[in-house]
Amino acid sequence: MELEELRKKISDDFNDMKLNLQTLSELRSQYLGKKGPINSLLSEMKNLPNEEKPKFGEKVNALRNLATKLFDEKKQELERKAVEEKLKKEAVDVTLPGKEMNTGSIHVLNKIVEEIEDLFIGMGYKVQDGVEVEKDLYNFQLLNIPENHPARAMQDTFYVDKERLLRTQTSAVQAHKMLESGGNKDIKIICPGRTYRRDDDDATHSHEFTQMEGLVVNKDVTMADLKGTLNIMAKRLFGEDREIRLRPSYFPFTEPSIEVDVSCFKCHGKGCALCKGTGWIEILGAGMVNNNVLRMCGYDPDVYQGFAFGVGIERIAMLKYGIDDIRTLYSNDLRQNKQFK
Length: 341
Ligand code: PHE
Description:
Layout: H1 3-14, H2 21-32, H3 37-44, H4 53-89, H5 108-122, E1 126-127, E2 133-135, H6 136-139, E3 164-166, H7 172-180, E4 187-196, E5 208-218, H8 223-238, E6 244-251, E7 254-263, E8 280-289, H9 291-296, E9 305-312, H10 313-321, H11 334-337
Residues 169, 171, 213, 251, 254, 285-287, 308-310 line the site of phenylalanine.
């Protein structure tokens, strides 16, 4: 092949737009390999007259340098393009919305229980657990509700057998704790938990619900302490500018007994649909521990006294978050639960 022809072919071939790294390296061995045209030109050199050899050698070398240079340049270009393409393909659009991680959320009832627990733990209370299948003895008798007492009608009960029942109130934990304390120790506990009554379920009743009991027993606690404590709780739950009002009431295990209202957080006391025009909303029952209860549970009522309160967590949740049907609290609807993250 003519030198000049070969030179042209080399530069055409190496500038071919369709080359890729694979075909480029094939091209390289085609021209620069042992059996390539450049090497065969060099081997022809021995047949030339001596005086032509240097000139010819120079030209062939120039060809080899050209091919090498073109190869190197093309290779660099193709490699750069490959990197650019890869970067383009793997580019991350940081403005795209991220993938959402589905984490759980706290149930509103637990949220309120935790809120109240936090508050009372801060005031030195211990959280006390109880059992849901309870003895009639603790749920009723030791709380001053003997068999056939009319107060039993206030709490229609699921009996498991003659002695045992599904506790109707967390007050049952009071009796356990007092008996356990042997009549000579101070008590300061709150007891959250599930409770059960044979109610027909509707928008405001559920056969299964949640209560939080509070009990303080020591030698000098008074009703003023109870009022102060409930005042703090009402403010924590419903806002700092709330007030509470105590109304006389009746529970067999407290004497005197009270029902506690909080000033309406919707109309601020003016009267609205939520507070039924009264400006007040009932939130819980409470009272001073009845002497009979203290006595039955081993405390001398001349030395010790106590206060107790019981709050319905569902009621607080419904009031606080404007939930109008108690059943939605048990529907396990994640859309609802997620709102309380
Ligand atoms: N256990 C009562 C109820 O369920 C509430 C209560 C608790 C009242 C403690 C007074 C003292 O209705």
